[in-house]
Write a structure and sequence with these properties.
Layout: H1 3-24, E1 25-27, E2 32-34, E3 38-42, E4 47-51, E5 58-62, E6 65-67, E7 78-83, E8 86-90, E9 96-100, E10 111-113, H2 124-130, H3 132-149
Antiparallel strand pairs: 1-2, 2-7, 3-4, 4-5, 5-6, 7-8, 8-9, 9-10
């Protein structure tokens, strides 16, 4: 193999390794995506994300606040750690949730929101990853489900 071919092969290998790193645990402009099963502790924000590879069950923990949604993660899932007060969980299909942990000592376990009633907006990084249209569809589906259950739209 000549030097040029070896150089190009090396560049290709580096690009593949970099791309895998971005896919598995990538930093965004304002947050971090977690996309691999197991336990991941993000020291910059204090979040701990645990995803069971076999069952798809997951939990988000921050301080004394923990949430474990009942829906399993599916192909294409991710958790987006927006900052130390907001984490988004997408199951790869039909569930998108924002979790805001309780403040230490206030007795709160935190609050979960759907895309239809989350304070603020769904971050651009999340919208980019799953698409604006899909985010709107998820919000509409959440609103419709709450309506069927008789839950106020702002809850």
């Amino acid at each position: 193999m000549n030097r040029a071919a070896a150089f190009l092969l090396g560049l290709l290998a580096a690009a593949i390794v970099y791309g895998l790193g971005v896919l598995l645990f990538s930093n965004d402009d304002t947050g971090t995506f977690v996309t691999r099963p197991g336990a991941t502790k993000h020291s910059g924000t204090g979040w701990q994300v645990t995803v069971d590879a076999e069952t798809g069950r997951h939990s988000l923990a921050h301080g004394s606040s923990t949430i474990s949604p009942l829906w399993p993660m599916k192909s294409g899932w991710f958790v987006y750690l927006e900052d130390d007060t907001r984490a988004w969980s997408f199951n790869g299909d039909d569930q998108l949730m924002l979790f805001i942990p309780g403040r230490g000592g206030d007795g709160s376990d935190g609050t979960a929101f759907g895309p239809d009633n989350a304070p603020g907006t769904v971050p651009a990084a999340v919208r980019h990853r799953i698409g604006d249209v899909r985010v709107r569809q998820l919000a509409e589906a959440a609103r419709a489900a709450k309506e069927r259950l008789g839950i106020r739209a702002d809850r």
